[in-house]
Amino acid sequence: MHLIIVVFFLKVLPLTVVGNHFDNHSAIHLGLKVETGLLQEKKLKVVAFGNSITATRKTIRQVYAQRLPKILAKSGLTAEVINAGVPGSHTGSVSDHSLFKIQHGRDRINSDVLAHHPDLVIVGFGTNDAHIDGEDPEGPSRIPVKDYEMNLTSMIRKFQENGIKIILLAPNPLGDKFPDYQNDRLILYVNTVRALSRKYQTGLVDNFKLFMEYPKNAGIPMDDLLLDGIHPNDLGHQLIAGALGNEIIRIIN
């Protein structure tokens, strides 16, 4: 009589991806342990949505959005960061203020954010909204602060309805080349960002506070963080990216 041995081979199927999430994503959140090597790390998809402070620049080695993946990798988080910064952009539409004839924040919500199905969006507007064109300290801002609040609120609600986590990025202060009344107006917009973050329980990186406090502690003038009195230089972007990295880790846990 011959002994017949039958060997069954179990085929291990690779993990499949549904949207941005792996098929064992729910298991992780349920606290189930998955053996090392069988679990592919989830990639966090982030959209940086804003103006020229967010957009890439030839005179900057890396803006904050470009620095974030490396910073987050140090915490074991793989991230794809999509830069949706547009120079000149405010929160409204071109019909609200048409100095820059481009698609502005309200016009770009679907195409520049929702179309990417991100896990998290960084919303950074306000410098262009607050700006006073002219030399009258009481002159109008490009986007009135009440409209700015309405536009940001609309964005926040839209993103939260789609299950997207949010970090609001408050504008940084303007440098010494600008008259004081520009920063006096800008702080109204910064305070609006702070209040909306509290109201809607979003993440917050307060660049105004960061750029005021860091130079005092480092013993340098604030303009050492800026290219031209408005836009952060590489050191400024390094500070923003570091603060954002900490805030991202905090809100996704």
Q: Can you give a write-up of this model?
A:
This is GDSL-type esterase/lipase family protein. This protein has 253 residues and is of the alpha/beta class. It has one domain (42-252): 3-Layer(aba) Sandwich (Rossmann fold), CATH 3.40.50. It is built from eight helices and seven strands. The chain has helices at 25-29, 64-73, 105-113, 127-130, 145-161, 180-200, 207-218, 234-252, and strands spanning 17-18, 21-22, 43-50, 78-85, 120-124, 165-170, 203-206. A five-stranded parallel sheet has the order 4-3-5-6-7, sandwiched between helices. The N and C termini lie far apart (63 Å).
Summarize the structure.
Residues 48-239 form the SGNH hydrolase-type esterase domain. By secondary structure, this protein is α/β, with parallel strands linked by helices.
What is the rounded Rg? 22 Å
Low-confidence stretches: 1-40
**Major beta-sheet overview:** 5 strands, parallel
* Individual helix count: 8
Strand arrangement, major sheet: 4-3-5-6-7
Name the average pLDDT.
87
Strand content: 5-15%
Protein name: GDSL-type esterase/lipase family protein
Domain SGNH hydrolase-type esterase: 48-239
Organism: Cyclobacterium jeungdonense
Q: What features would you highlight for this structure?
A:
single chain, 253 residues, alpha/beta, Rossmann fold, two-stranded antiparallel sheet, 14% strand, globular, SGNH_hydro_sf, SGNH_hydro, Ester_Hydrolysis_Enzymes, GDSL-type esterase/lipase family protein
